[in-house]
Predict the 3D structure of the following.
Amino acid sequence: MKYLRLYADETGESRVEEMQAEFDMAVYAPPAPAFGVSRPTDAMRFIMVHFPAGWDSELHPAPRRQLFVMLSGQFQGQASDGTVMDLGPGDVILMEDTTGKGHSARTIGGSDVHALMVHLE
């Protein structure tokens, strides 16, 4: 499974890289058969967010290290290095650009966006 990582480099520029989740077969919920499970990541809580159609932001750093999981609508993010990320339902970003210039974001396509943000430790 691929996902994006948004991070700040040593100069404070936000950058994007594609990551690959690794899975090992495990009996996670007996008696269900084994399926692929990734390594655990500690999380503190989650919030659900709603961005109304037409929402648009300036550059800003992520307020905390978090996973951004798209649930509905279309969203476009842009790292301060100019990399554009077009996102739709099911897309996941590991947001780690908590310092530096940050990123901008906006809804696209004329519809509201709903997402899940999982706050990581």
User: Anything to note?
Assistant: The longest strand covers residues 43-51. DSSP finds no helices and eleven strands in the chain. The chain has one domain: 2-120.
